Each structure stands twice: as structure tokens, then as C-alpha cells.
């Protein structure tokens, strides 16, 4: 029942076109994005307050990244002292192997999962299924897309692309004894009834982490459905998995970041549930797991961290506001990107996770309008990073900095730029070339590659600027 791990599809243009040609999908996303934008605006009526909060949030994240190695060591020490077992994974395969090792030690057959984009990044469900372990999503949106054999189309609202009719049909087809109903409350109740039985029978609970506090060794997890709390307390073993940049220095920093997170993500003043996890159940406590594990995943993030400009990518708190305001994402949805993290944040983080060679088209899937950067609660300069990635994709071998740099550079494009450089560096040749182009404008081709797919052909002006100025002087 779990979806295959999401991998980048080379035909990004074809996926985008298919999404644009789907009027139901476009209507669904446009309506959802307008709704989320309005809810966010209502939560930030004071522009000055918002500006101060964003400045503070950005400063907190930059401070954490500036001290990341030390904070990770401090986090490990505090968690270990609290009784949490800390694991380090360089790749998704290593992370999956760690979880499989824990599961085998406990002879686990069933696992319930709270919402975790990092587990999606690892293809976790697919790996568990291959090992004969049931891994069931318990977030309602994640449960729906898992039932459909799909990946999430949004990092906050995984099933935002589904209509209630599609969900009703899905439940009727996949869940025994369930009749077709378009009543939303009834659909939610059906999902909850299925999931409640799974919590009690699960051997392991897996969750993500919103922020990991180095000062206290605390894992902070937010949610709205209560399923995360069930996953982290009912099973005997709790495994948390997160990316290395989620660490913050102090507990008080969580207050600021969590003031920004729900208001930016879903337009809520605060989440329904906030979980602070500092260790396994103590002898005098009535509930909680006997074991708690934390897996810290790198998966290419040290590449971003090592570059001063690209390090800002890791400031992200996964609110999804950039997606909600992106005109491209609103038209093509998340699945068209073909990556776990879609939208503007996906375009700048995916090259580090998967390599620029397979993800560089995402950097070009932007109007560079800057809406994403304007709403980012921690002020990530997304547009600047997109431009940098475009440059890296076209980089010469001697100027490459990232894994996959220069992938988009072709012999034809290189020849064109070399010719341009020669022409523009020699005045006589430049004058001759522009004279010829203006006089032979009728020979301009009507098909000009990607430019004319949605634009009129470029045609040189009948007179050069220097000709017009000469005529004016006369």
C-alpha cells in the first residue's frame, strides 16, 4: 500500500504540461493557494511586527547554522544523557538500514508513522515494505496519498491535490466495508477508525522533528490531529528522524520560530498539539516508549552548508509559505516537480539531495518574481539562490562548485557564448554584425527553440541605435 520512493523524472516539461492541461487540478490548487494566502494575511495584520519576527527568526536560524557542528555535538550529548540513542546517517540508505536494524532487534512487524518529510526523502515506506514490515501513515493527508500509491504534493498538506470525490472513491475501493460518501466528516471518521486500531498494534512509532534543542536535548514536534502524539507514546519504541539543520541552540528560540511556523503555513495562530520529547518513559511515568532513537540525516546538506551563499537554504523551517505564494506551483502542483520537496524550496534544496544533474530544470521553473522570498518567515534569499543554481547548471568545468555543475551546458550554447564574447569585445566586428542583422531581419527564423513555445519570435530592429542617433544629429 505504500508509494514507491519519489525520484526526479527527466520529463519535467511534460509533467508540467500535463498539470496545466488538467483544469480540475489547476482549479483545486488555485483555490487552495488563494485560501492559504488569505489566512496567512489575517495572521499578520501588523507589517512592522511581522518584519521584526522575520528578522528574529532569520537571526536564530543563521546563528544555529553558524554554530551547527558544535550544536549537533551538544544535542547528541544532551540526548544521550536523557536516555535517547542518537544515530548518524550520511545517506537515505543508511537511515533506512538503521531503522531496519532497530525493527529487527524488536522483531517488529508493524510501524505507525507521524508526518515526516525526511522519511519521504529516504523512501522509507518502500524500504520497510521490501523488508516485510508494514509502515502505515497516520496523518490523514499522508494516509490518503499512501492509500492512493502516491507521494505528497505539498509539504504541509500532502493530499491538497485530491478532491473529496476522489477521496470518497479511494476509500470505497481500498477499505473493506466502506461505502461511497462525499461527507467530509464521515470520511475523516472512517480514516480515524482505521488508524486507531493500528496504534495499539504497532511495535514501533516513527515521527519527524520540527526543531531539536541542543541546550536541553529536546525534540519539538507540532501537529493538528493528535496522531503524532499517539505515534510517539503508544508503541514501545519511538524512532524520530530529522535532517541535521533542524537543530536550534536554545529552548527559547523555539518560541519565536513556532510563532512564525503555523501562521505562515496554515494561517493558524498556534497548532493543536505541541510535543516536547526529551527521553523514554521514566519508571514513575504511566505512558511513553521504553526506547527513543533519533536519526540525524545529512543526505547532501553538508554540500549546501560548505557554501556561504547556499547555506541560507538550510534556514528553512518547512512552513510551505513559498509554495502557497508561488505562481508556478499554483499552476502545476507538487507532483510535476517529481521531487519530495516541490515549489521554490524544493528547487533550491533538491540539487543538494539528488544532484544538480537531475534537478537543474527546477531552478528554471520560476518567474523570479520574488513572492517566495517576500513571505519566507526566516528570510531565505530564494531568488538569489535560484539564480546561483542556474549559473551553476551552465558553469564551465573550471568554475563548477556543486555536484552536477555544468550539466545544462551544451556544445552549441558554449559556442554561441564564445561568439558573443568575441563580437562584443571588438568594436568593428560588433558594428558589422549589428549592421548585417538589421539589414537581414527578414531572414530571422520563426522557430527559436524554447523561446517561441510561448512567445513571439525575436526579430532585430530595422535600424540600429547608432543609426537612429546619427539620423537625429543630422
How does this structure look, described?
Among the domains are: 12-162 and 203-302, NagB/RpiA/CoA transferase-like (Rossmann fold, 3-Layer(aba) Sandwich), CATH 3.40.50.10420; 415-473, no CATH class. By secondary structure, it is of the alpha/beta class. The protein contains 22 helices and ten strands. Helix 3 packs across helix 12 and helix 16 packs antiparallel against helix 17 (356-364).
Shape, principal axes of CA atoms: globular
Could you tell me how far the N terminus lies from the C terminus, measured between alpha carbons in angstroms?
79 Å
Name of the top-level CATH class of one domain: Alpha Beta
The SS-based structural class is alpha/beta
CATH superfamily annotation of one domain: NagB/RpiA/CoA transferase-like
Helix content: 40-55%
pLDDT < 50 stretches: 1-10
CATH architecture label name of one domain: 3-Layer(aba) Sandwich
**Could you give a short account of the major beta sheet?**
6 strands, parallel
Strand order, sheet with most strands: 1-10-7-4-2-3
How many DSSP H or I helices? 22
From the alpha carbons, calculate the radius of gyration and give it in angstroms. Answer: 26 Å
| CATH topology name of one domain | Rossmann fold
Q: What is the β-strand count?
A: 10
Mean pLDDT score: 92
Characterize the quaternary organization of these chains: single chain
Strand residues, percent: 5-15%
Keywords, separated by commas or semicolons:
single chain; 474 residues; alpha/beta; Rossmann fold; four-stranded mixed β-sheet; 22 helices; 50% helix; globular
